[in-house]
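User: Okay, second chain of the day. Same drill as before: sequence in, structure tokens out.
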Amino acid sequence: MHSWIRLVVTASLTSSAVLPKWHARAQTIPNRTPTRGQRRVRDDQGGASRPATINYTFLATTRTFHQKTYRSTADWSHSTRPRAAVNNNNEENRKMSPTPAGADDKITAAVEDHGLSGTEVEIKLRIPDSASYDALAQALIPCFKQAHEQENWFFDGAGKELSNKRVVLRLRFYDIDRKALLTCKGKQVLEGGVGTAPEEEETIDPKVARGYLADPQALLESSSPLITKLKSQYGLKKGLTLLGGFQNLRKEYSWRGNLLELDQTSYPWGTLHELECETTTPQKLKLELESLLDTYGVAYSDSTKSKFANFVDKTLE
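Assistant: Same drill. Structure tokens below.
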């Protein structure tokens, strides 16, 4: 089983608009002043803190956006991201302090595998406002690779067979219908800003996947190896139900041999920002990214919730 470690920086701000449906529309999100104790954020020229505006256009879809809050999610901390290529052999990384012996093994061992084939470990740090997000995006421009839009949709068993076991089933679309990825994640252990969760994923034809949003039962009856495994383990005798979803704008950067993913996640009740990076040496990469954030005056702190947990609880934590 491969262990994958991800470093995540999150940010949140509140949107005044509540959108009951997925539809094409521009949403303007104002800057929010950092709370007491957070670092002030300067612009890329080293000036004073400044207001910032983000424009985000929702993708057009034909399905009504809806959400079913079916339980409290105080211990739901699942991550929702595909794996990224990493390179831990560059000279800069080798100069960093070594990871304490056995530290990563202890993190991974604490996770139930739920019968899934992979393990994802992520370090989560929060950024408090859009000005910090803009400053980081500006600093990373020389490393920019590409950007794409994602739709994230979630399913549960009609009898809550998956949620009762803290299992998340997600269907993600890239750039409308360029690609579709089905992912299952088990319960995440989140401690001290480090989250670990089992996961397994498979690629699905986007046109076929679109049909599953309108007819979740078709997904349950499909020949998907992942669905077959879930039926064997959890039964799902009553069928599948669509919980709803949210959208994410992802920008990718190649930085010091690592693939950084800068996310802007849009919910009907507000927006989160995250910087993600997978690695097998979390302590070393955390030091590097903290140094990067400090250099550009970007505030951060430990995150306590994943994108999915915020979706279920309708929060921005």
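The longest strand covers residues 240-255.

User: Thanks, on to the next one.
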